[in-house]
Amino acid sequence: MDRPSVIHKTSSDLCVLPNWTDYDQECSHFSWDVARQALQGLPGGGLNMGFEAVDRHADGALRDHIALRFVARGMPAQEMSFVQLQRETNRFANVLQNLGVVKGDHLFVLAGRIPELYISVLGALKNGTVVTPMFSAFGPEPIATRINLGAGQVLVTTDLLYKRKVKQIREQMPSLRYVLLVAEGGGSTSEPVTLDWRQLMDSASETFCTVSTLPEDPALLHFTSGTTGAPKAAIHVHGAVVAHYATGRYAIDLHPQDRYWCTADPGWVTGTSYGIIAPLLHGVTSLIDREEFDAERWYSLLEEERISVWYTAPTAIRMLMKYGASLAQQHSRPALRFIASVGEPLNPEAVWWGKEVLGLPIHDNWWQTETGGIMIANTPAFDIKPGSMGRPVPGIEAMIVERLESEGEPPRVRIVDRPNVDGELALKAGWPSMFRGYLNNEARYQKCFADGLYLTGDLARRDADGYYWFVGRADDVIKSAGHLIGPFEVENVLMEHPAVAEAGVIGKPDAVVGEVVKAFISLKHGYVGDEALRLDILAHARKRLGAVVAPKEMTFIVTMPRTRSGKIMRRLLKARELGLPEGDTSTLETSA
Ligand code: AMP
User: Fold this and answer.
1) What's the pLDDT score for residue 590?
2) Which of 53, 88, 122, 245 is found 20 to 30 A from 208 (Cα to Cα)?
């Protein structure tokens, strides 16, 4: 169907007066210093993410307002008001203090979306302890890699996850001083060399004075994958909270009376910045669904929970689209007024589907682990061009650049002034939620910057109206169902299998999840690449990596294409898989 290239906002899209309507005016008046004034701060110029998210409201007019509402199949909903959340997070901060866990120590959380996860993250932030929520579907390998890279001293997890994934690798994580277990069935736990989360909470005081953190003190470590080497831990500071607040206002249009649902898991940066921090900062009630995707359930939640603002992901939208309009039409969405999406390209069809089937266009926005918050967005303040990521939010200066050759030197770039030219997306460095380093990898961090710009590694173009369009990634990192997956991490685990000589991993385009992880394997002498072996290798990867990261598809090949310097040519594997031209193969090892 031929559709217009712009979705003009109608009065039904703007049934509540948006937080802003004049893009140019807001951008020209914006300053991060003024934005910070919306927050309370700590005495002496301090700023603490946990305090701003919880205590600012618990000590004010919203004290009895519901902050978090947890729902799960077959269980009554559990709610926590701001004042209850304050007490619980105070208790947890005291638990840490009692254990001698202090400001700057590193705490990891491995759990489903249970209340204890949210309490632990926010309590740790108030204690100045640096937090990493990890995705509970990770297998033992990614868990150990991250805890070791982040030198985690404390792990909060559940008894079941501990038994399934952590116990056998506990010895491989020497930095871990304490493992706190939440008994999933209620009650207490009795695993050796662990502590019982609830028992510790019961004996901790519910009053706590937030540890004085400064805006530049580290608050969160978020892991992200690269093409080579181990994942990188991006360091985010307490000052990022200013950007979480501002973007919650501009890009997801949060109003205090909203009932908001962010479908992302806190194990990914969206689920922390916009699944925990931003909604609390705005004093809204957040719905947290503990279950996995289920189209029927999701429509019921939008209806019964009277969700007004919904922040989700392209994969989820495409899955809903697969179920067809009729399922959507069996449910009403009585309060829904704003839908946003992030994580991967949102096809124009999906934006239109929102408009035509859900009654609201979907606002795509762009950001990444390193940016800590939304940078480019479709917002209520301007019309949508379906397929575009939108325009930079106030306070963010984006541009398209071309990298100049600079062998061994710090990167240099040239800014591309003309519209509709493909290049690398760059952002003027210095916004509050910008990462402040990759833990223990200053050289890698410095490589991300040139001439005062942060180079995102994404290719994009800007049109004459200032809208940005995603073109692709400049590297081999795989984006599957919104999750970044480093091929190297997967290849390493595949190589552990006794039959595997070489492994190459690519992202294979997929209509629903964006890309699926596909592995190419060459076998050691004496092994036969039959179906049984294929399934055995896939099962090994799934056990070690977890379902999200493990390959879904696998093919045996005789020789792995490598460069003469020994690097796997994933680009070539991909071209061959997709039947595309092989491009420049001058560096290919001739035997391949
Ligand atoms: P992560 O660091 O895991 O959040 O992944 C960030 C990457 O996801 C970006 O660098 C992009 O490659 C991709 N991404 C995020 N949002 C979008 C979007 N709206 N459109 C296209 N790609 C996106």
Assistant:
1) 60
2) 245
Fold exhibited by the domain 476-578: GMP Synthetase; Chain A, domain 3 (3.30.300)
Ligand 1 cavity residues, CB under 6 Å: 224, 269, 342-345, 364-366, 368-369, 389, 456, 458, 470, 473, 479, 484
**In the prediction, which pLDDT does 592 show?**
36
With cut-offs at 50, 70 and 90, classify the pLDDT of residue 591: very low
CATH of domain 397-475: 2.30.38.10
For ligand 1, atom 22, name the residue with the nearest CA: 344
Torsions phi, psi of 163, nearest 5? -65, -35
Residue 479 Cα to ligand 1 midpoint, Å, equals 8
> Could you tell me the distance, in angstroms and rounded to a whole number, from the CA of residue 378 to the centre of ligand 1?
15
Strands 232-237 and 259-262 turn out to be: unpaired
Ligand 1 atom having least distance to the Cα of 484: 3
pLDDT at residue number 565 = 65
Running DSSP on this structure, what letter comes out for residue 421? -
- Provide the pLDDT confidence category of residue 46 given band limits of 50, 70 and 90: very high
Closest CA to 400 of 387, 384, 419: 419
Identify which of 351, 433, 470, 480 to mutate to test ligand 1's pocket (most ligand atoms within 8 A of the CB).
470
Look up the pTM and report it.
0.92
Going along 114-258, which residue ranges are E strands?
A: 130-134, 154-158, 178-182, 195-196, 218-224, 232-237
* 466 phi and psi angles, rounded to 5 deg: 85, 10
Q: Do domains 397-475 and 476-578 have the same CATH topology?
A: no
Q: How far is the CA of 156 from the centre of ligand 1 (A)?
A: 28
Distance separating alpha carbons of residues 478 and 505, to the nearest angstrom: 9
Residue 393 CA to ligand 1 centre (angstroms) = 16
pLDDT in tens, 219-266: 999 999 877 778 999 999 999 999 999 999 999 999 999 999 999 999
State in Å: Cα 531 to ligand 1 middle: 35
- All structural domains of the chain with their residue ranges: 397-475, 476-578
